[in-house]
């Protein structure tokens, strides 16, 4: 081949040579290139077909890596033209945002009561005086003058609102003191205070329990727990209400399953209430603690109704059963009941509390509790500490009085524990249809209101609740009530339930 | 505590960053009264100073502005971007932090086994939280933990008293030193400055505690409703221009329960991707389907709407029973407004229901403080549900939902947050009521109106100033929430410390509260600040901006509260000269330009 005839081809050839030499040199510099060279050489000499296939594979690999990633094919998606979409848009008619109120909802709406103040003896808006038997002001601290003075001082010192979430300059010295006081009152390492008690447990549960974790929940748990476990997306098992045998059966079942399949260890929790919000009965904490220790579960105990009402000095169920509070991983309580402040808390180990400060949704995304409400709560704790249990004794004796006055009557029975200041009264005639029962109970409530006693039905959003329960009256006993008032109310209930029932049965007939 | 008192009285003079001429102006000239007891006079002076730390007297009566949309029914908001240098260095910073974190974990697990015990299975219990999920907190957040959750005392007003603290274990725990420092507060959501311990609101609160008690100890449906609850419900409804409203004791609790009462399986919630966590929490609880559209992107919203209406429910293709679009009026991390005019157009066409969360916008924007609808001049009757909180502008707590009478009545019996949760404290209601009465007073001498207009002036003034200095600022020019972009993670704590040195408390935000790249400082301005405070902050930002290399704006967002470059941006034209004004120039032109534009 003469170089002079095709100068262009020569140029290209020279350039090609140069590049190949350059690449060859470059390859030499790279460590391990010799191996590659030897491999290519040997494979090419011995088996050109193999090299070709390998080359194809390389091309395919390059194509596979560089191609546009396809989204997973959605077989259900219907391709429509713009015109068709426009027609569908024009045709679509939404339902009204809310359906009209049904009969039960109308009854609920009409039964809302408006009062004048939080005091035990207060007035309705029409000026009639009334004694409040439906407020959770169990120890009468809501009208304690000493506490009110302290809160006014707080208002004069730091205004009302905290104007920001706790993580952004919203945590004030009052909150810190409240957290410390609750922790030392119960006897745990640390506490975190939420701005609303209802949101507390709904936020605590998903902060720890994630997908794949196991929650074992009392089937009659309150609404806040139901929402919390819904958000957590964990595996949920329900045990029969306060049935320790059923709880043990489920624990054993899960343990067997765990061992048989050799599953990885996940977080496991038992969730139950101290005093049930729906039924008023008390859980056997010592048994639950024994079971949780045996099967290595953590315990989340909702003490919203037992904190400040149970135990010798009001420390809750742990005190009542003489269980160490450190055996319960998370104690959730309300500051809006006995302590007459606002908000809720979760008490336990420092590790657990600090984690919530970064992942408890209702803590980080909500403004801090107004300082005045925090002040009221820690002043109430101080009073409980000083008092040393006499207030609680008073409360217990008043509860016992009400229970005693209502025993052996044919109209009502109760599921409430003797210690519980929240007393649920159900009609004994369970055959009466649900709506009718509600109407009867509402009549009783109205009658008592006319007589100067404010009691209430247990208010629930039935459509959203997990269990449908028998409607009930809810009577809250407080140390602020006198024995005469309690006796008078119980005799009113006994005397008039009969006529109310008769009236309704007649109207049906 | 003696120390506290001493630092309070002492620091007002020393640490509090007010230029001398400003304090001189604000103090009315005292006529010498020889018969006045000197002690009394001193007490009065101290009291006056205390009141001034909560709410600054206005330095110039003209420093007021009406907050309304001037762009003619359109919304103009532009987000500037820094050069790639800062983007790349930010990612490298995170990479370095993550590598160091892993190295520390590697050695820590071998040599300090006890410190890592909580991340391992022990005694048959799984660890309380995930090793991997906890990495960010353990290795990145703890480095700058001293910038967060600083404990405070007193009123979160114009000034805030921080409790000084130190850490001996790398920010894991903090110990209080026992003394405090008074700082200028641009961190609290105290937009209208109603966080005060004295004045008509505090009087009303005190009276309410004496009369009604502090806590209702009950849910709204049993016996937690007092006359004052109904009064405030009426006031709130009247204020937002809706027939009825109902109130809840917690803002988070409002959003997290209201959706379960409204929506359910078969219906759809379309939510802005940057909506507040409470909205996401609530919509997940409701059981409705959830779709998300890109933040404030109306094109994307329309795409989602067309898709969901034409495709119907997944699998069955049954049409959705109803669609609720959920937006926020003012996004608290971005500082920008929802594009309400465009949404109202879409609403007419696609027949969805609209839910506006006005947590930050109520009281803070609009000529009468009426929120986003007021700002755009859109009647609230066109919006189905307005939700808001009392935490921010009203200096109280809790939230409301305002809507038609039917919807509100339905919510009264089906909203779990109303039926089960504690009702609002009468003290909180008194604060809301008295601040409402001030804001709703539309007479020319109204104090509430003055607050609203002062806030509007402050927001524009500071935004104009910061933009001219060359910072990257997000959000709308009328928004009191001012995010200043930092980008590099190392600058987060640097900025916070520098500001604290200068006596200003600020909120810094990093991942995961905002995207990884755009770490930011968030200022929340208030009607309680006066021009002297704003100038002080501008000067501080100017100094720190030079030091930390934060003046990164490209000029695309304009240097005149965002008008000149609108056309250029729309046509994607040319180069905008990046604004780098000197601080003196900024301050000398600030007031005039704020009032003019």
From TrEMBL, chain A:
<comment type="pathway">
    <text>Lipid metabolism; sphingolipid metabolism.</text>
</comment>
<dbReference type="GO" id="GO:0005783">
    <property type="term" value="C:endoplasmic reticulum"/>
</dbReference>
<comment type="pathway">
    <text>Sphingolipid metabolism.</text>
</comment>
<keyword id="KW-0746">Sphingolipid metabolism</keyword>
<dbReference type="Pfam" id="PF00155">
    <property type="entry name" value="Aminotran_1_2"/>
</dbReference>
<dbReference type="GO" id="GO:0004758">
    <property type="term" value="F:serine C-palmitoyltransferase activity"/>
</dbReference>
<dbReference type="GO" id="GO:0046513">
    <property type="term" value="P:ceramide biosynthetic process"/>
</dbReference>
<keyword id="KW-0663">Pyridoxal phosphate</keyword>
<dbReference type="GO" id="GO:0046512">
    <property type="term" value="P:sphingosine biosynthetic process"/>
</dbReference>
<keyword id="KW-0808">Transferase</keyword>
<dbReference type="InterPro" id="IPR050087">
    <property type="entry name" value="AON_synthase_class-II"/>
</dbReference>
<comment type="similarity">
    <text>Belongs to the class-II pyridoxal-phosphate-dependent aminotransferase family.</text>
</comment>
<dbReference type="InterPro" id="IPR015422">
    <property type="entry name" value="PyrdxlP-dep_Trfase_small"/>
</dbReference>
<dbReference type="InterPro" id="IPR004839">
    <property type="entry name" value="Aminotransferase_I/II_large"/>
</dbReference>
<dbReference type="GO" id="GO:0016020">
    <property type="term" value="C:membrane"/>
</dbReference>
<dbReference type="InterPro" id="IPR015424">
    <property type="entry name" value="PyrdxlP-dep_Trfase"/>
</dbReference>
<protein>
    <recommendedName>
        <fullName>serine C-palmitoyltransferase</fullName>
        <ecNumber>2.3.1.50</ecNumber>
    </recommendedName>
</protein>
<dbReference type="InterPro" id="IPR015421">
    <property type="entry name" value="PyrdxlP-dep_Trfase_major"/>
</dbReference>
<dbReference type="GO" id="GO:0030170">
    <property type="term" value="F:pyridoxal phosphate binding"/>
</dbReference>
<keyword id="KW-0012">Acyltransferase</keyword>
<feature type="domain" description="Aminotransferase class I/classII large">
    <location>
        <begin position="130"/>
        <end position="489"/>
    </location>
</feature>
<keyword id="KW-0443">Lipid metabolism</keyword>
UniProtKB/TrEMBL annotation, chain B:
<comment type="similarity">
    <text>Belongs to the class-II pyridoxal-phosphate-dependent aminotransferase family.</text>
</comment>
<dbReference type="InterPro" id="IPR004839">
    <property type="entry name" value="Aminotransferase_I/II_large"/>
</dbReference>
<keyword id="KW-1133">Transmembrane helix</keyword>
<dbReference type="InterPro" id="IPR050087">
    <property type="entry name" value="AON_synthase_class-II"/>
</dbReference>
<dbReference type="GO" id="GO:0046513">
    <property type="term" value="P:ceramide biosynthetic process"/>
</dbReference>
<dbReference type="GO" id="GO:0030170">
    <property type="term" value="F:pyridoxal phosphate binding"/>
</dbReference>
<keyword id="KW-0812">Transmembrane</keyword>
<dbReference type="InterPro" id="IPR015422">
    <property type="entry name" value="PyrdxlP-dep_Trfase_small"/>
</dbReference>
<dbReference type="GO" id="GO:0004758">
    <property type="term" value="F:serine C-palmitoyltransferase activity"/>
</dbReference>
<keyword id="KW-0663">Pyridoxal phosphate</keyword>
<feature type="compositionally biased region" description="Basic and acidic residues">
    <location>
        <begin position="26"/>
        <end position="35"/>
    </location>
</feature>
<feature type="domain" description="Aminotransferase class I/classII large">
    <location>
        <begin position="184"/>
        <end position="540"/>
    </location>
</feature>
<keyword id="KW-0472">Membrane</keyword>
<dbReference type="InterPro" id="IPR015421">
    <property type="entry name" value="PyrdxlP-dep_Trfase_major"/>
</dbReference>
<dbReference type="GO" id="GO:0016020">
    <property type="term" value="C:membrane"/>
</dbReference>
<dbReference type="GO" id="GO:0017059">
    <property type="term" value="C:serine palmitoyltransferase complex"/>
</dbReference>
<dbReference type="InterPro" id="IPR015424">
    <property type="entry name" value="PyrdxlP-dep_Trfase"/>
</dbReference>
<dbReference type="InterPro" id="IPR001917">
    <property type="entry name" value="Aminotrans_II_pyridoxalP_BS"/>
</dbReference>
<feature type="region of interest" description="Disordered">
    <location>
        <begin position="1"/>
        <end position="35"/>
    </location>
</feature>
<dbReference type="GO" id="GO:0046512">
    <property type="term" value="P:sphingosine biosynthetic process"/>
</dbReference>
<keyword id="KW-0808">Transferase</keyword>
<protein>
    <recommendedName>
        <fullName>serine C-palmitoyltransferase</fullName>
        <ecNumber>2.3.1.50</ecNumber>
    </recommendedName>
</protein>
């Amino acid at each position: 081949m003469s170089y002079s005839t095709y100068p262009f081809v020569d140029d290209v050839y020279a350039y090609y040579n140069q590049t190949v030499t350059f690449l060859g040199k470059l390859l030499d510099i790279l460590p391990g290139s010799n191996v590659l060279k030897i491999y290519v050489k040997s494979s090419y000499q011995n088996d050109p077909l193999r090299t070709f296939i390998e080359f194809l594979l390389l091309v395919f690999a390059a194509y596979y890596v560089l191609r546009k990633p396809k989204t997973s094919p959605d077989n259900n998606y219907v391709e429509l033209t713009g015109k068709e979409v426009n027609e569908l848009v024009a045709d679509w008619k939404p339902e009204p945002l809310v359906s009209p109120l049904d009969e039960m909802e109308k009854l609920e709406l009409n039964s809302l009561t408006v009062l004048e103040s939080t005091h035990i003896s207060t007035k309705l808006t029409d000026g009639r005086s009334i004694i409040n038997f439906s407020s959770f002001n169990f120890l009468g601290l809501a009208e304690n003058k000493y506490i009110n003075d302290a809160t006014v001082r707080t208002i004069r010192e730091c205004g009302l609102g905290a104007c920001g979430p706790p993580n952004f300059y919203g945590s004030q010295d009052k909150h810190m003191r409240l957290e410390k006081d609750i922790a030392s009152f119960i006897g745990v390492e640390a506490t975190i205070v939420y701005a609303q008690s209802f949101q507390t447990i709904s936020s605590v549960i998903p902060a720890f329990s994630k997908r794949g974790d196991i929650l074992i929940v009392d089937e009659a748990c309150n609404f806040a727990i139901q929402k919390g476990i819904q958000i957590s997306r964990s595996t949920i098992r329900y045990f029969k209400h306060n049935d320790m045998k059923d709880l043990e059966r489920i624990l054993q079942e899960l343990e067997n399953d765990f061992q048989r399949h050799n599953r990885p260890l996940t977080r496991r929790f038992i969730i139950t209430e101290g005093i049930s919000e729906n039924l008023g009965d008390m859980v056997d904490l010592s048994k639950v603690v024994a079971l949780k220790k045996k099967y290595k579960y953590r315990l989340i105990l909702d003490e919203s109704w037992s904190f400040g009402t149970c135990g010798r000095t009001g420390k809750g169920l742990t005190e009542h059963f003489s269980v160490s509070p450190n055996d319960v991983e998370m104690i959730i309580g309300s500051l809006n009941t006995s302590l007459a402040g606002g908000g809720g808390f979760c008490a336990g180990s420092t590790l657990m509390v600090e984690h919530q400060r970064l992942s408890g949704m209702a803590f980080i995304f909500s403004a801090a509790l107004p300082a005045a409400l925090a002040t009221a709560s820690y002043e109430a704790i101080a009073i409980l500490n000083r008092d040393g249990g006499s207030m609680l004794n008073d409360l217990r004796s008043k509860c016992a009085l009400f229970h005693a006055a209502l025993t052996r009557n044919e109209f009502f029975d109760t599921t409430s524990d003797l210690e519980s200041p929240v007393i649920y009264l159900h009609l004994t005639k369970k055959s009466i249809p649900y709506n009718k029962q509600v109407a009867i109970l509402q009549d009783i409530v109205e009658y008592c209101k006319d007589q100067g006693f404010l009691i209430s039905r247990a208010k629930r959003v039935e459509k959203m609740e997990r269990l449908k329960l028998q409607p009930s009256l809810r009577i809250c006993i407080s140390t602020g009530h006198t024995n005469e008032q309690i006796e008078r109310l119980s005799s009113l209930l006994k005397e008039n339930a009969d006529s109310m029932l008769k009236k309704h049965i007649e109207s049906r007939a | 505590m003696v120390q506290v008192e001493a630092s309070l009285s002492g620091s007002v003079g020393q640490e509090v960053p007010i230029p001398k001429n400003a304090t001189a102006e604000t103090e009315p000239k005292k006529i010498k009264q020889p018969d006045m007891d000197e002690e009394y006079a001193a007490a009065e002076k101290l009291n006056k100073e205390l009141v001034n730390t909560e709410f600054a007297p206005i330095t110039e009566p003209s420093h007021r502005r009406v907050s309304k949309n001037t762009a003619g029914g359109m919304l103009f908001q532009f987000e500037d971007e820094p050069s790639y240098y800062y983007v790349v260095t930010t990612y490298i910073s995170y990479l370095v932090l993550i590598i160091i974190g892993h190295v520390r974990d590697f050695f820590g697990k071998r040599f300090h086994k006890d410190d890592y015990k909580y991340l391992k299975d022990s005694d048959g219990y799984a660890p309380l939280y995930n090793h991997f999920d906890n990495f960010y907190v353990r290795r990145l957040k703890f480095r700058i933990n001293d910038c967060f959750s600083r404990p405070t005392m007193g009123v979160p007003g114009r000034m805030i008293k921080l409790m000084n603290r130190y850490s001996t274990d790398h920010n894991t725990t903090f110990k209080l030193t026992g003394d405090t420092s008074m700082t200028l507060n641009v961190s609290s959501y105290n937009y209208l400055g109603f966080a005060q311990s004295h004045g008509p609101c505090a009087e009303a609160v005190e009276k309410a505690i004496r009369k009604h008690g502090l806590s209702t100890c009950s849910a709204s449906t049993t016996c937690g409703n007092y006359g004052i609850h109904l009064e405030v419900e009426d006031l709130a409804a009247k204020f937002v221009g809706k027939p009825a409203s109902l109130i809840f004791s917690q803002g988070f609790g409002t959003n997290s329960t209201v959706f379960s009462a409204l929506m359910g399986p078969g219906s759809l919630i379309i939510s802005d991707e940057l909506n507040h966590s409470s909205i996401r929490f609530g919509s997940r609880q409701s059981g409705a389907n959830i779709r998300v559209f890109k933040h404030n992107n109306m094109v994307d919203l329309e795409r989602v709407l067309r898709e969901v209406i034409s495709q119907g429910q997944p699998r069955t293709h049954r049409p959705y029973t109803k669609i609720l679009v959920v937006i926020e009026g003012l996004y608290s991390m971005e500082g920008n407004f929802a594009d309400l005019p465009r949404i109202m157009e879409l609403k007419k066409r696609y027949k969805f229901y609209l839910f506006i969360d006005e947590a930050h916008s109520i009281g803070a924007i609009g000529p009468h403080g009426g929120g986003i609808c007021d700002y755009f001049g859109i009647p609230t009757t066109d919006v189905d549900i307005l939700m808001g909180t009392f935490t921010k502008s009203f200096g109280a707590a809790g939230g409301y939902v305002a809507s038609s009478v039917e919807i509100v009545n339905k919510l009264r019996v089906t909203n779990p947050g109303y039926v089960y949760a504690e009702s609002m404290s009468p003290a909180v209601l008194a604060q809301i009521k008295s601040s409402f009465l001030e804001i709703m007073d539309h007479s020319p001498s109204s104090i509430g109106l003055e607050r609203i207009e002062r806030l509007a002036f402050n927001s524009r003034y500071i935004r104009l100033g910061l933009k001219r200095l060359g910072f990257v600022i997000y959000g709308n020019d009328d928004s009191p929430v001012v995010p200043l972009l930092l980008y590099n993670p190392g600058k987060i704590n640097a900025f916070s410390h520098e500001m604290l040195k200068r006596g200003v408390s600020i909120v810094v935000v990093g991942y995961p509260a905002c995207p990884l790249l755009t770490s930011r400082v968030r200022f929340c301005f208030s009607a309680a600040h006066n021009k002297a405070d704003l100038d002080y902050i501008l000067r501080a930002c100017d100094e720190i901006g030079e030091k930390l290399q934060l003046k990164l704006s490209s000029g695309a967002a304009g240097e005149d509260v965002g008008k000149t470059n609108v056309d250029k941006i729309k046509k994607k034209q040319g180069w905008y000269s990046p604004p780098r004004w000197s601080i003196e120039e900024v301050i000398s032109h600030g007031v005039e330009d704020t009032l003019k534009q």
